[in-house]
Amino acid sequence: MARKNDVDELIREALKAEDVHDLEQLGEPGLPDLVTDVFRGKLRWYGAMFLAMILVFTVVAVYCGLRFLGTADVPEMMRWGAGFFLCVIAVLGGKNWYWMQLERLAMTREIKRVELLIAHLATELRSRA
Fold first, then answer.
1. Could you say which of 30, 47, 104, 110 is the most buried, measured as most Cβ atoms within 10 Å of its Cβ?
2. Is the dihedral of CA 40, 44, 50, 51 positive or negative?
3. pTM of the predicted model, to two decimals?
4. How far is the C-alpha of 111 from the C-alpha of 120, rounded, in Å?
5. Alpha helices in the chain, H assignment, sequence order
6. Cα dist. 84→35, 38, 60, 71 in Å?
7. Per residue in 82-104, pLDDT tens?
8. d(Cα 85, Cα 65) in Å, to the nearest integer?
């Protein structure tokens, strides 16, 4: 299977010089842009909700962990430990959703680049015909 860089080079060879310049102008977004992309678009409220959920459950997990370590009664330790465990699971679920959104946005960005390349190639073929 061809590596990504090999495919990029083949695409650049197929395009005209100005098309390659346009493609390079798009560039790769930086980390702050990638992180804040989740808070743009149709699902921005879900992103804010999941961020708030992650923060709340992190605070509750820390509280449960401290109470777990501060008690000597075994049944109470089990309750605080279960609370800590459930909060950590909730935080992991929120972070998993967030990373899936980042992956979805990256995939959408790449698909749009392919669409742009196909549009340039189609224009090139029409002008030759």
1. 47
2. positive
3. 0.70
4. 14
5. 4-14, 17-26, 31-36, 44-70, 74-128
6. 27, 27, 8, 14
7. 999 999 999 999 999 999 998 99
8. 9
